[in-house]
Amino acid sequence: xxxxxxxxxxxxxxxxxxxxxxxxxxxxxxxxxxxxxxxxxxxxxxxxxxxxxxxxxxxxxxxxxxxxxxxxxxxxxxxxxxxxxxxxxxxxxxxxxxxxxxxxxxxxxxxxxxxxxxxxxxxxxxxxxxxxxxxxxxxxxxxxxxxxxxxxxxxxxxxxxxxxxxxxxxxxxxxxxxxxxxxxxxxxxxxxxxxxxxxxxxxxxxxxxxxxxxxxxxxxxxxxxxxxxxxxxxxxxxxxxxxxxxxxxxxxxxxxxxxxxxxxxxxxxxxxxxxxxxxxxxxxxxxxxxxxxxxxxxxxxxxxxxxxxxxxxxxxxxxxxxxxxxxxxxxxxxxxxxxxxxxxxxxxxxxxxxxxxxxxxxxxxxxxxxxx
Length: 372
Known about the structure:
Layout: H1 6-10, H2 16-31, H3 37-50, H4 56-66, H5 74-81, H6 85-94, H7 100-109, H8 113-119, H9 126-134, H10 138-145, H11 154-163, H12 168-175, H13 182-204, H14 208-228, H15 233-245, H16 251-259, H17 263-274, H18 278-286, H19 290-300, H20 307-319, H21 326-343, H22 352-365
Helix pairs in contact: 2-3, 2-4, 4-6, 6-8, 7-9, 8-10, 10-12, 11-13, 13-14, 15-17, 16-17, 16-22, 17-18, 17-19, 20-21
């Protein structure tokens, strides 16, 4: 075991370049378990002297050497964490001695780089994440959502979108998280789409209604792509509720879902609009004849103009086995569109976007009349 000698203690009153060497030396010996019991006690007192050193370089050397130690006294770690950012950063990022309560106190007291450092910790609890979001510090929050080790609740994700609707760094980092709650992902898609609409109108001189159509197509595709990634019935029902509450559960997204084989979304959407259980919708679609479907559609309040196309798509559902895989999804989509276009040749186009745009144009002018 190593003992601290008189020379080491004497260097504490020497030049800064000597003191920072001493900080590094004593810190390394302490962390590596090289000190005997009496020397460990002396080392801890040395640390308490060094956290008050006038020279930043000395305090930084101490912080660098102690950042990953679980044995450093709490008061020493906390003092270093409350220091200037150059000293505090390694402790804030790495130290496991600091508690969540410590980190929340530091977040409230030390704005700027210290908050960013906390957001970079390998693991950030939901309590600490909430404290960071409450500061409305854009850089810290962008760092937080970019951290895969950060525990962020769906409620907190919602608060982030509320607080930073125009922040590209925050939205970009949110978009790149490996997984987002489905309702958060749909909100994010909508926010990005609105920015796209503004750009199309202002930079490309597109009429607002044309830009809106393009944005709607992009938004609906993205929302359904989220579901295609594999969602539970509960997730899909939650997304449908959110879309309905915000006026985004459109006839076109419902028909689009059916045409690309997203039966779970389609059934949930019809059930939500008609006010019936999803299981009832499934039975009507798969097992019942067209009369039952017609009554269900009438109850949903969807435009009667769209019913013939939807009925053709459901016929394709009944005829084809859809396993949900990407190849089967594309096969289903192509066949459904082909069948619908064959029946409605007057639409005169061979792609789903054009079909939905034409149907959307008609339904916008129509009332919710019952299907023929």
